[in-house]
C-alpha cells in the first residue's frame, strides 16, 4: 500500500508517560497526595465559587463587566490568580498541579467565569512568566496576579483558525517613532472587553513575533460582543489594531520566534482546560444524582432504574479516569521542571505535547458525554434554562473547539509520538494482576502497529489522518488505563471503589484499543492485517472478561449514596 521509510519506533516513549514499570512501586502523584496546604487552596477556591460566582451567575451571563472585574479582583485578593507566578514577582509559585486544582474547583460551578479565569491565569499570564524579561515581569505580573489588570491572548484571526500561524496581522518597524506599528484584527478574543493588556501575535519581516499591547494604546479598539451558543458570561470579541505604535520594550521574547511562544503557551493551556472540564463534569454528575434522588417516575425514584444507575456509573468512571490522568500529567511536568530547573522551561514543557493534548481531548469529551447524560437524566427539565444542566450542556460544546480543535490535538499527539518513539525494548509479559495484563497487552499491540507504521514514509502516515486519529486514541486510552491502575495500586488494600472502577476502565479500555488496532492493521497491510486480526481476536494472553454489569451496579451504589462524584 505504501513505500518503505526510515522511521523507527518502539513500544516506550523516551520520557513520558509510560516510563514506570507496572510491577514497580508506583511513584506517581494522585489527588490523594494533596498536602494540607493544597487542600486548603481547594477549599478556598470552593468558597470563592460559592460566594463570588454562583450568586452573580446571572449578572455575569448578561456581560456585567463591573461584576466580572470585581470577581477578578476578589480572586486576586485570595491569591487564585498568582498560583504559577514566581514569588519574586508577587506570586505563589505553586506549580502545575496546584494551578490545575484551582482550575478544577472554579470549573465546578464557575460557569463562564471559569473560561475567563483560565485565559487570564493561563495564556494571558504564562507568556510573561516564560518569555518576559525582568522589566516586563515586574510591570505586568504583579498587576495580573493581583487582579488589578485582566489579561488576554490574541492569536486567532478571521482567516486563521486551526492554522493559527497563518495570520495576516502585521508589525512594521518605524524608525522615526522608534516603535513597531501593528495593524490587523484578532478574532474571538476571550476577555476582550475586560482586558487591560493583550499578548498579540503579528508577522514581521523576521517571522511571527509576540507583542505586549495595552488597551489604552492609541489605535486599539474592541468590537461588539459575539452572540454565542454558550459561555455567554465570557467576553468574546474582535480586537482591532489600527496602526498601533508598540514600543520596542514591549516585544515579548525574540523577534521572529513568536510561533514558539504561541505553540508552547497553548500546550500547557490544554492541560489546564482539562482540569476545568473535570470540575464541570463533577458538578454535572452531582446535579444529576441529586435530581435523580428527588424525581419519581412510575412511583419509583429515577436512581432506582438500572439504566439511570448505569449512566451515573459511566459518568463517575469517566471522571475518575480523567482525574487520574490530569493530576499525574501535571505532576510529571512539575517534576520535570524541578529536575531541569537550569533548562529553558518552554523546552521542558514542550516534551509533554502528547500528554497535554491527550488531556485536553479527554477532558472535553468526558465533559461532553457527562453533560449530555446530565440533560438526559433531567429529562424535559434538562432542556429548560432554569436548570443549571442546560447551561452546562451549552457551555461544554466549546471545549472541543478552542485551545486547538480535538482533531488538531489528535494530529499533535500522533506527530509527537512518531518523533519520540525509539527502538523497541525486549519483550516481557507480566503475571498476576489482571489489570496489569490488560495494560501490558494493550501496550504490546500498540507497539506492534506502531512498528508497522514505521515501515511507511512518515509524511504518508501523517497525511493519512485516520491513522493519526486511531494512534492518538489508543495512546490516550492506554494512558488512562495506566493512570487509573497506578492510582489504585498506590491506594492499596481497602480501596474497593477505586478497584471496581479500575477493573472496568482496564477491561473496556483494552477492548477499545483492540478494536482500533484491528482497524489500523486492516488499513496498513491487508494480508498481514487479516492474520493479526485473527491473532488479536483469539486473545491468547488477554484475561477473560468479568461481569461488568454487576461491577457497574456496585459502583452506582457508592455514587448514589455519596450524592456526588466519589472514589
Please tally the β strands and state the result: 10
**Largest beta sheet: strand ordering:** 1-4-5-8
Largest sheet: 4 strands, mixed
**Helix/strand/pairing category:** alpha+beta
Helix proportion of residues, in percent? 55-70%
Please mark out the parts with pLDDT under 50 across 5 or more consecutive residues, or reply none: 1-17
Domain Acyl-CoA dehydrogenase/oxidase N-terminal: 35-147
Keywords: FAD, Flavoprotein, Oxidoreductase
GO molecular function: acyl-CoA dehydrogenase activity; flavin adenine dinucleotide binding
Domain Acyl-CoA dehydrogenase/oxidase C-terminal: 256-417
Which keywords apply here?
19 helices, oxidoreductase, AcylCoA_DH/ox_N_sf, Butyryl-Coa Dehydrogenase, subunit A, domain 1, alpha+beta, acyl-CoA dehydrogenase activity, Butyryl-CoA Dehydrogenase, subunit A, domain 2, globular, Butyryl-CoA Dehydrogenase, subunit A, domain 3, 567 residues, disordered N terminus
